[in-house]
Write a structure and sequence with these properties.
nine-stranded mixed beta sheet; globular; alpha/beta
């Protein structure tokens, strides 16, 4: 089986589905040696890397359920417009930073499970993989959605949403030594694309093509001996490509439960759970440590940030969860939901490679 990795993508409030997937994985005895996260997946990933138990699932469930009552995205349209005019983004990240500090470890080194997250450097126009030092700033940078939240300054550089670089970092996990990879996504993999009716929809479709193409390329280039499980979300109603209600917590618990149930069924059908005594952490070898310290991303995918903001009545339309979409492999190479494929074949949602 080799080292096990959890790869968590993003998608705004839709990222709650990952909590259900994590719950099912941990309940089945699947324990990660490595966690890799992007954007909202960096938040979920850092929490489970700190405590891969049911306790972390309870914490994440409460945090997601309280989203609508929290101050993370506070403020009405008038205040948001004033913030945009003055600062160039809709919300301050002060409340989100405070929340992360209250619930996450202070540094990467304190985590019992190896964890990495990615953000996009504005100055260098490239990826920055964080794996050491202060944890909160790195996670905040990874989920700094352009126009929704401000860039995060770390050192001499400014960072924004990691989904612009690698929305579903399967390749990164493999480069760090993972041989069994569980992909946790927000549920847009099966959604068919069609030409957009409005200008902002056309942009989102273009970003989505790039993201899916990046994921398909990563799946197609997997080396022999690597198995990837793309977990099912369990929502047959169709996940929206454009999420306007990014501050709404309605349906969060339903989404978590649907993903938990679907993932549990998938794991039972495929027999992919691992023994409960599987080691919590595998220390990387010298070669892997070297790879972890490189800033270059393994695979790149253009995106618009986990939640693009396009313009609303006052000239600003909020589009949450649009940029961090998980990709999909080419239809001819894809296993259907709940299906499986052996080495050399790509997997769709609920499938394996």
């Amino acid at each position: 089986m080799g080292p096990v990795a959890f790869v968590l993508g993003g998608g705004g409030v839709l990222g709650a589905a990952e909590v259900g997937m994590l719950d099912a994985l941990l309940e089945a005895g699947c324990r990660p040696d490595l966690v890799v996260g992007t954007s909202v997946g960096a938040i979920n990933g850092a929490a489970v890397a700190a405590n891969p138990t049911a306790e972390a699932i309870g914490l994440l469930t409460e945090l997601w359920s309280d989203l609508g009552r929290s101050d993370v995205f506070a403020g009405g349209p008038a205040k948001q417009l004033a913030t945009v005019v003055q600062h160039g983004h809709l919300h301050s990240n002060a409340s989100l930073r405070q929340m992360l500090r209250a619930h996450l470890a202070a540094t990467f080194e304190e985590l019992p499970v190896r964890f990495q997250c990615v953000a996009a450097s504005i100055e260098r126009a490239t990826a920055r993989w964080f794996d050491q030092g202060p944890l909160v700033d790195a996670v905040l940078a990874s989920c700094a959605v352009p126009a929704l939240l401000p860039p995060v300054k770390i050192g001499d550089e400014h960072y924004i949403d990691g989904g612009l670089i690698d929305s579903t970092p399967v390749g990164r996990a493999v480069a760090l030594g993972a041989r069994t990879v569980y992909v946790l996504h927000v549920g847009r993999i099966e959604r068919p694309l069609r030409p957009g009716r409005w200008p902002w929809e056309a942009g989102l479709v273009a970003f989505e093509i790039a993201r899916r193409r990046g994921f398909a390329d990563a799946m197609a280039s997997l080396p022999e001996g690597v198995t990837v499980h793309v977990l099912p979300v369990g929502d047959d109603s169709g996940t929206p490509l454009l999420g306007l209600r990014y501050r709404s917590a309605s349906g969060v618990r339903r989404r978590i439960e649907q993903a938990r149930r679907a993932t549990t069924e998938y794991l039972e059908r495929s027999g992919t759970s691992v023994p409960a005594n599987h080691p919590i952490r595998s220390e990387p070898g010298a070669g892997e440590a070297g790879a972890a310290n490189k800033a270059a991303a393994v695979n790149t995918a253009a995106g618009a940030g986990e939640a693009g903001v396009i313009g609303e009545a006052a000239g600003i339309a909020e589009a949450a969860g649009a940029a961090e979409t998980s990709g999909v492999s080419e239809p001819a190479r894809s296993a259907g939901p709940g299906g499986s494929a052996g080495p050399g074949r790509a997997g769709g949602s609920g499938g394996t490679r």
